From TrEMBL, chains A, B:
Full protein name: LacI family transcriptional regulator
This protein's record includes keyword DNA-binding: yes
Native species: Cryobacterium suzukii
Keywords: DNA-binding, Transcription, Transcription regulation
Sequence ranges assigned to domain HTH lacI-type in this UniProt record: 2-56
InterPro entries linked: HTH_LacI, LacI/GalR-like_sensor, Lambda_DNA-bd_dom_sf, Peripla_BP_I
Keyword hit for Lipid metabolism: no
GO terms, molecular function: DNA-binding transcription factor activity; transcription cis-regulatory region binding
Taxonomic path: Bacteria, Bacillati, Actinomycetota, Actinomycetes, Micrococcales
Pfam family, one: LacI
Amino acid sequence: MINIADVARHAGVSTATVSRALSGGHHVSPATRLRVEASAAQLGYVVSSNASSLASGRMKNIGVVVPFLNHWFFASVVEGAQQALQRHGYDLTLYNLTGGLEARRSVFEHFLLRQRVDAVIAVSLELSENEVARLHALDKPLVGVGGPLAGVRTLTVDDLAVARLATEHLIALGHTRIAHIGGDKAFDLDFNLPTNRRFGYEAALAAAGIVARRDDFRPADFTTAGGYQAAKQLLGRPHERPTAIFAASDEMAIGSILAARDLGLVVPGDVSVIGVDDHELADFFGLSTVAQFPQQQGEKAVEVLMQELRPHPESRTGLNINMPFELIVRGSTARPMV
Amino acid sequence: MINIADVARHAGVSTATVSRALSGGHHVSPATRLRVEASAAQLGYVVSSNASSLASGRMKNIGVVVPFLNHWFFASVVEGAQQALQRHGYDLTLYNLTGGLEARRSVFEHFLLRQRVDAVIAVSLELSENEVARLHALDKPLVGVGGPLAGVRTLTVDDLAVARLATEHLIALGHTRIAHIGGDKAFDLDFNLPTNRRFGYEAALAAAGIVARRDDFRPADFTTAGGYQAAKQLLGRPHERPTAIFAASDEMAIGSILAARDLGLVVPGDVSVIGVDDHELADFFGLSTVAQFPQQQGEKAVEVLMQELRPHPESRTGLNINMPFELIVRGSTARPMV
DNA sequence: CTGAAAGCGCTAACAA
DNA sequence: TTGTTAGCGCTTTCAG
């Protein structure tokens, strides 16, 4: 392995100059910088990140923690973050908490603290105060994606507004019997997104002077199968069948479409269906939805972090950063038949 | 930050002893080991991985390279690898090549060579000889998942056998008009899996004395939408409609099921459909399939690597390691109606 | 603008 | 079994 001394010798300068020339290039004359760069390239020199980190305290590596990876949303966030980091010359070290409580503890007690990362991005994770405190104690910037995390800079979409928008779309089309498939309690524990979306739905109804019937809400588990089952119950009722369903995720919305079909109902003729996410299958199913952009969220998280990692964090944004969302109307929503 | 010297002082031993006690614990008396461990715990000491790596040459970190993350199969492999690595006390640094050629070069020229990783796992990636050579030159073990990579230890499922098994299942049920939806040329570039699966299909037919009709094969892009379109073509033919479809992925198989339904055909009454993967939606759609176990593949890749990373690699397995697969029969396949 | 030299925190000979 | 000590390769004052 060829090291900084080799380059210094080859370029006829000191190792200090090589270091300076290769990192930022401040306080080095253009001429020598060029010479050093040429030597480095010629010799195929690559800095040893360990030595560099040890000496400088910068790791050029950030930790990303996700609950699981095996899910469209999380995978997209990570992918976005990875690409953004790569542009900045950073590595991404991935931790996923699928392994349960033990894995979680081990991540926080050993891995994140090994001084491997400059900062941490926590995706859809409700960190305990203890966990947050630990990170803060180490002076490691932390940004959250999609939770609300006490005292932590977090990127969130306004779930209430998202749900309101979706519901308003249905109301504007003329629907008055609008059911909602939301998350069950298990999901509320880790991020109270289901509750927020339900509130948004109810707020939109209320604003339109519609009273939400209690049995027009059904909890499910955010999967296609869960949405299917919930929709079957909703649509199979002999009386007062809803003419529209707002599902809190596209996967549940797709389940609803399939449930409607299996009951012989036509979408959107008999039931309109709208979801949230703009999942990769949404287009195929012609599903109207409120898109959120997970990849972009990952990228943005990185930008925020880079900001914070700079010596003098200028223009720090507020603690809560609102991410965009957008109504996408496809074929699954239409005016109700009279 | 509290360091090894602090622990040494607290435990009344030298830093060398602390180092030994905390890593493996060889050549240390049980008594002092206990004492050191107690001190470390009490002080909240965590080794600086940089210093440790710099001194030892071991990074305790492995690089995983995937073409994209945003896909069930890759995400599952990574998840499996991550969990296995965590058990071994290793970190996982993720590289994805979604960014195109430039990103790819940058990964290989800078990131992987920064001496950050002890080894590399390449998932479904056709590495160039140059790229492989580079890694070998650095003495970095490399294991592939799901390609065949020249000169590299690779985990593969026998795609030919997988396809044969699926097709044989249909033949055994009595089908003779069996269509195949495979991958198009674009996919063959990166891993010639589509070709292998097609060969397996043809081999099974040939063994049963069935001649494969040319127009019973349709290429698609491994997505649900692609499978849907291909199946529409296959099933919409006025004459000699196939009674069964073998799709090279579950997503295409699901597309086929939906296409059949839209044509008013009943699955499996009018058409049987079988896929490959055991995708998370397979169960929901009652899809018969040949399961492969991506998570397990990720774990296995780690085991192989750990083996190789040990001082004296015992019992090295062959270059090609066959991964298991399994026929799972659900409701989408049945005897053809006579 | 450039060089000399002191660490960064740990591991691994080597000695004891 | 334990301690001493010389690096690992780089960054960063501090001089010049």
